[in-house]
Amino acid sequence: MIRTALILVRKDLRLFMRDRTALFFLLVLPIGLGAVMGTAMGGGMMGGGTKARKVAIAVEDQDQTPTSEALVGALMDIDDLRVELLPDARRLVADGDRAGGLVIPSGYGEALVAGQPLPALVLYRDPARQIASQIMLFQLSPVLFQQAAKALGSGMMDRVTGLMGLPEPSRGAVTAELVGSYMRVENLMAGMEAEWQDSAPPVAEPAAGEAEGGRAAAEPDEAPLATLMDALPSMIGLEVEDLAPPRADGLPRSAGASHAFAAMAVMMLLFNLVAFAGTLLEERAEGTLDRLRLTAEAGRAVLLGKILVTMLLASIQLLELFSFGALAFQVPVMEHLPALAITSLTWALAASALGLLFATACRTRKQMEGLSTLVILVMSAVGGAWFPREITPEWMQTAGLATPVAWAMDAFHGVLWYGKGVLDTPELSGVYPSLLVLAAGATVMLTVAFRLYQRRFESA
Amino acid sequence: MTLHSAPDPPSAGVAIEAKDLEKAFGEVPAVRGLNLNVRKGESLGLLGPNGAGKTTTLRILSTLLPADGGSVRVLGLDPAKDGRALRARIGVVPQDIALYAGLRAEENLRLFGELAGLGGARLRERVEWGLEAAGLEERRRSLVSEFSGGMKRRLNLVAALLHEPELVFLDEPTAGVDPQSRNHLFEQVEAIHRAGTTLVYTTHAMGEVERLCGRIVIMDRGRCLAEGTLEGLRGLDAVRAGLGTGLQMEPGVDLEQAAAVLREHGMGAEVRGVAADLESIFLALTGRALRDENVEDDS
Fold this sequence. Notes:
The complex is a heterodimer. Chain A is mainly α. Chain A folds into two domains: about 55-195 and about 230-240, abc type-2 transporter like fold (3-Layer(aba) Sandwich); about 255-460, no CATH class. Chain A is built from 18 helices and five strands. Chain A has a five-stranded mixed β-sheet. In chain A, helix 10 runs antiparallel to helix 15. The longest helix of chain A is centred in the N-terminal third of the chain and has 35 residues, at about 130-165. The radius of gyration of chain A is 29 Å and the shape is elongated. The two termini of chain A are about 50 Å apart. Chain B is built from eleven helices and ten strands. Chain B has helices at about 55-60, 85, 105-115, 120-135, 150-160, 180-195, 205-210, 230-235, 235-245, 255-265, 280-285; strands spanning about 5, 15-25, 30-40, 45, 70-75, 90-95, 165-170, 200, 215-220, 225-230. Chain B is globular and about 75 Å long. In chain B, a hairpin with a 2-residue loop joins strand 2 (about 15-25) and strand 3 (about 30-40). At the A-B interface, helix 12 of A face helix 2 and helix 3 of B.
């Protein structure tokens, strides 16, 4: 019995070891995906850390004084923020182009110099980027604290010395005392900062869905930090406005649901369409492709037929997915239906093209299954279908742009979360740049697929 | 050099004319300087061991594969340039069961009929003909995946005949079927041949070629070794030499007299006249060494 079982084990191992696809799934795929995921989450291979991408924040300086410029300079020195001086910071956040936007109002410098109450700085945040928002607030705080403290100290000094009617010689001692107090405040702030640094959530270890997942992950022992973070803006003279895009139907907009359904639309379509395109290889192996080619009418229409079917299947799948999303999760499907339809069709074309590229480049269905699984999973990871791209290292961000997934995610998320249309409006930019990139990519992939089809299917 | 047992067919009414046909897959030659002539209405048997180049030749003639060299005319058309027009006039019965297993018998025939340019009442009529010819009227709504090997083969044959092609290439159409199905298939093929369809038939079943084909071409290693009628092939010197053992006599010799002469010389008591069959001729020309070559998907 045991001997027979061992003979059968030997047989199965032999067959398995000769199956390259099975070996690929067993040994290569887990390591490949592990490397991508580990790197994306901020880990570095061989013990080397990979620094997460800096949070992008637009600073709009409406004050244009040496004081406001000094503040901008100080902000730019913050390591974990990528601060850019740009106009219309609010629009940039509303468009999803930046995680945050800080507006320095006019009169800020004058008030600071005069020791008067400062006009509030306005921080616009994207609620879909909660982790980025927390990082941003946390990193801005020390600099803004210093500004607030300076204003406080300067005002106090003028008031106290004036009220006391002290003669000029005595004012020096009083000022020294006040400066000493200021220094003590600064030291206190530095201590608080260090404490927060220790207790702050790691920058690059978010949950898969950043938006509401981040909130949901808050445990009871993190509550004091959350309370502090809530109180922080008023302490540092900051007015925070979360730019949750309004919905025409008045329902709350869910960033998590929008991201989830965008990701499902992108990833599931890729898997299904690539699998369907593989029928081309199946038909070749079975001889039915030759039989089609032997008919008077089929000819080159074979490939066109495949594209049309994949587009149709994609439409059916997306229709079902978004209908479910609208009904069960209030995903705002009807809000920009034409934009969603155009985005869906463009993505379906790109995914079909990718599927045909795999089908014409591979020799067998098994080979295609192995290769496409790895490529789709990696593209989904670096393209933002699994987690927001902004939490990944900068080089991975850049690499993500080489995948159609990143552009598709931008377009779907733009429509579903930001409420964008295809074209620009006075309030928002359109998703057409992403769609153009997808269409261009589809054209290139289809051209290559047609060439490969001619060479490998029609001449061999 | 090709051994001829009969003069070349006249050029009038030529269905296939291939001259110096060449095709290689990478460095491996599959067809080397093949010359082939088939008259309209003729039934040609194309024989050869595995790797001889038969399937490659059929693929070139039927527009599936471009030739590397030489010239080809099929029904007066160039397969490389007039593919669409030619495909409308030819039929190919592939070696594989090239049917969609997930479609019903009727759906398969309708698909291939439509793609062959049929429509409307004509399509319905031809699909009915196909189901009847394949003996599958009762199973028209069954999925092909549920069929036996013989049923699939029968459907595979009629799917190539729906548009009533003038010339049909049959690549081992009876492989792996039971005698009943083979006989049924054969009757169908004979029927279309009687109706005037030109046939090019490749198989390893020599008996089928003897029964069906008026002329035979034997290929090996991409070349044509011999061509002619069965009788003509029997008379080729190379064949006679290759047959080796046994006493070979000229046609018309009186066997009783021959037996008497042999007995006088103390050799044998009985003499029976046995004509060399096609398999013996085939082996005489191509040798008895095993062929395990695999040039692309040729067999």
